[in-house]
Amino acid sequence: MSTIQHLVFCLFLSAAGPVAAAELAVLIYDGKGVAIPEAVVTLLPQRLDDAAVARSRMPLRQTVDQRNETFIPHVTLLARGGHVVFANSDATRHHVYSFSAARAFALVLAPGESSEPVSFERNGVVAIGCNIHDRMVAYVYVSDVPWGALSNKDGRAVFSDPPKGTYLARVWHPRMRPGRPEPSQTVALADGASSISFTLELLPDRSHRHDRECVRY
Amino acid sequence: MRFRTRLALFLVATLAVVQVLTALSVYTFTRRALIAQGKNQLADAAAVFVRQLDDISDHTSERVRILALDYALRVAIAERDHATVISALRNHGRRINATRMLIVELDGTVASDTESATAAERTFAFPELLERATEGSATTVVGRADSGAWMAAVPVLAPVPIAFIVAEIPLDDALLRRLQEISTLPKDIEVAVENGGAWSVIARSSGTISMAAHLPRPGLRLDAEAALVTAGDSEFLMLATPIDRTAQGGPIVAVLGYPLDAALRPYQPVVLAVVTLLGLGLAGALIGAVLIARGVSRPVEALAELARRFGAGDYTPPPPLPQRGEIGELSSAFASMTRAIAEREERIQHQATHDATTDLLNRPAIETLMRSRLVARPTEQGALLCVGLARLQEIIETVGYELGDRVLRNAGLRLKQAIGTEFVARVSDTSFIIWLPGDDSEAARSTASRIVGLFEEPYQESDVSIDTAAAVGIAAYPQHGTAAGTLTQHAAVALNVAMRTDRSVLFYDPAVDPHRPDRLSLMSELREALDRDELYLAYQPKLDLGIGRIGGAEALVRWNHVKRGNVPPDAFINLAEETGNIGRLTRWAMAKGIDQAASWAKRRLALRLSINLSVRDLDDTNLPKRLSDLLSARSLPPKRIMLEITESAIMGEPDAAIAVLRRLADLGVDLAVDDFGIGQSSFAYLRRLPVRELKIDKTFVLNLAESQQDRAIVRSIVELGHRLNYRITAEGVEDEPTLDFLTEVGCDHAQGYFLSRPLAAPAFDAFLGEARWPAKEMRAVS
């Protein structure tokens, strides 16, 4: 993998030009080479003294809906200080809670009700559940890095506007083993498209586990 | 061994062997089947048990998982509210029968522990369990030194894992019993863990047997199949199976047992029934065998007893046996055999004890009868009569045996009728014996006289009339013998003497019995005496009356017995004649006499020595040659020897004996007739013999002085003898007048005590020297 990275890096160097913005595609695979969606990729420029560069492009306001006893989306990116509104599109109540250190809260949403925006003032991953429906999990990734993106179903996260320069790319995924440092790569962005890839070791996907209750009802 | 016993033993043994083998094979098959069944059951039970434990494990972890979803608990854990967490854990722990609950951080440190208030900073002992629990939930079985437990770990989701709840549920006796209650597990289950190289039982069911001790050492492979174990007097199958391959803290096994004794217990009534049947069968077989065998052996024993009785001589016919078949046939065969044997034996007995001709008893039979009588009444007197028929031998030779037999039969009949006793027997061709028990000598004598009278009547048969005469010899009991054999012998001796002496009835007299035992011993001693030279010759001088000098001597044998002293010559000379030993005696006397005569001749004494010959010596045709050899050996002229033979001996002798006499005379030896005058010799007969001298018997000489008649006889003999050219010698001269008379009538020689008794050689020499009659001397050869 490092050879490929090196090669890509060389290409960037050779194509280096006066273009202000580069494009970076980050590909996320698991150990078997299967594309991993819903992985959070963040880019942190080496130089944060440039205000233009250091400015956060992360969303400040997000909505997490609850439909069919599922949080949608499963992973939400949020700039530090941003707010998330929790909506209830189900006909049941939901008891949304978080015990995460970054932000602990609990609120009960009647059917059709939406919550007040919930502010997230600290960086970190906030795991959100429903006390009524154990299966329901959602994550709010709160960070003050300038760039962040989610991988799509092809395991691809694309950054189209970062300027040339050197960045630290980090990846996080809910099924990563907790307590481990996020994998990261330093990437030098030049003109044109470049891409890097991460291979993650993930825990098994437990959301698709055989659920007796679902079967029965 | 008796037939009955053998048969019974055989039947019973066969039955017993068959039954025991049957019982053994049934037992073996049953046992084998039970073991196979037990192995299968154990394998099934082990699988069930492990599955049940797995179920419990699943169930436990599920319950812990549900517990972990408790919101309040999660809040407390998330907020690190330690006191609330502990109390909640205790509360929830009771719900699931847990004995211990822990909260473990994601990094493996123990956050809370119901058993310890200060559990923080301790690392959870089984990180592997947490590892597995990350993926949902995990259980394991933990074996400790003396206990075991399930440990179920479940992540606390909020909604992502924030910690683990660990619950510990004991694996103990109570659990095993509960399991046994709800399922058909075997009674004997043990759960054992390794503890210091050995198995330590941490849980035991309600069973009674202890199995873990028989496991292979920890670390060794466990048997895949149930093993048969014998412990003490109990036997059981045992199967060990690991409970959980992920077990923590050392291996842990479940041991299931299948006691054979218990499995065999349902078969005990069967065993009892089999044993009872066995016993009944044996008893039945025994009774049957004894009955059957008795049916055979009783009659066989009866027949054997019968045969023994026959052997002892009892021929009473046996009562018929009621048996049919072979035994019955044998029985009737026995009966007819008995009759046949009895008849034959009676016949044989009769023949053995009776004389065929007269049908009287024979000698052994009457002696047997006498013996039993004598034994029965030893003090009773008795007499044995031996009846002899004179002339019977001649009669048989004349008229033949057939008529002789009839005469004998008639004689027996007469005796039997006259005496009226059964003790009549025929003992020889011509004699009978009659035993008269209780009779004294007088009665015996009168009976004997009656018997003699019986035979005065001649035997009559158509045209033949046979005259026999009876003589009777009597031996009286107990005077003449106490044994039957002795009595018959002595009666026969008496009869012989009677017949010889023409007397009709004679009692046994030991003095005249020539067959007395002491005589026989004397005879053997005589032979030894001859060898040892105990005999000597005595010489009685003969006076030559013509010249008044001793002209000769008669040699007389004397025996100086070592123990008996001087034995009378009559005693042993007659004996020697009767027993055929006289030849040796004569030869000895001739040798000695010729020696003596030669010595006299050497001294120029003209003595002629007379040597006595027995009539038996004349049977020896070598006698003349022997005499001639002796004479020439001593160079003795034959005329110095004279041989004397008694008158009675010469009479009626066969020509052979006469020929011997002639040959002796031809040698030149003179012959003299001894004891002349008492026999029936005639001068006519004497003239045929080469006799030179006659010796007048001393019965005519002893009383010569007084008896006119004797004097006439002697004078006549001398005159007649001289006319016929015989020399005459008178014996028994005991006084001078006799000697004078003999001289007067011209007798040639005199011999007798008046001259001298017989003298041993030295004394004889002395007699010649001193006597009034000097010896005749040889004339000088001119």
Can I get a quick summary?
By secondary structure, chain A is mainly beta.
Report what the structure shows.
The complex is a heterodimer of chains A (217) and B (782). With 217 residues, chain A is mostly beta strands. Chain A has two domains: 2-54 and 150-200, Immunoglobulins (Immunoglobulin-like, Sandwich); 61-143, Cupredoxins -  blue copper proteins (Immunoglobulin-like, Sandwich), CATH 2.60.40. Chain A has helices at 2-14, 51-54, 212-216; strands at residues 22-30, 40-45, 61-67, 70-72, 75-79, 83-88, 94-98, 105-109, 118-119, 124-130, 137-143, 147-150, 156-159, 165-172, 184-189, 192-200. Chain B is α+β, with helices and mostly antiparallel strands and 782 residues long. Chain B is 48% helix and 22% strand. Chain B contains 24 helices and 28 strands. In chain B, the strands form five sheets. In chain B, strands 19-20-22-23-24-25-26-27 form an eight-stranded mixed barrel, surrounded by five helices. In chain B, strands 3-2-1-6-5-4 form a six-stranded antiparallel sheet, sandwiched between helices. Chain B has a five-stranded antiparallel sheet with strand order 8-7-11-10-9. In chain B, strand 20 and strand 21 form a beta hairpin. The longest helix of chain B is centred in the N-terminal third of the chain and has 66 residues, at 3-68. At the A-B interface, strand 10 of A face helix 2 of B.
What is the fold's blueprint, element by element?
The complex is a heterodimer of chains A (217) and B (782).
Chain A: H1 2-14, E1 22-30, E2 40-45, H2 51-54, E3 61-67, E4 70-72, E5 75-79, E6 83-88, E7 94-98, E8 105-109, E9 118-119, E10 124-130, E11 137-143, E12 147-150, E13 156-159, E14 165-172, E15 184-189, E16 192-200, H3 212-216
Parallel strand pairs in A: 1-16, 3-6, 5-11
Antiparallel strand pairs in A: 1-13, 2-12, 2-14, 3-4, 6-9, 7-8, 7-10, 10-11, 14-15
Chain B: H1 3-68, H2 71-78, H3 82-95, E1 100-105, E2 109-113, E3 122-123, H4 127-133, E4 138-143, E5 148-157, E6 161-170, H5 173-182, E7 188-195, E8 198-204, E9 227-231, E10 234-242, E11 252-259, H6 260-264, H7 268-311, H8 325-353, H9 363-376, E12 382-390, H10 392-399, H11 401-419, E13 424-426, E14 431-437, H12 441-454, E15 459-461, E16 464-466, E17 469-477, H13 484-500, E18 505-507, H14 517-532, E19 535-544, E20 549-561, E21 565-567, H15 569-578, H16 582-602, E22 608-612, H17 623-634, E23 641-646, H18 647-650, H19 655-666, E24 670-676, H20 683-686, E25 693-696, H21 698-701, H22 708-723, E26 727-730, H23 736-745, E27 749-750, E28 759-760, H24 761-770
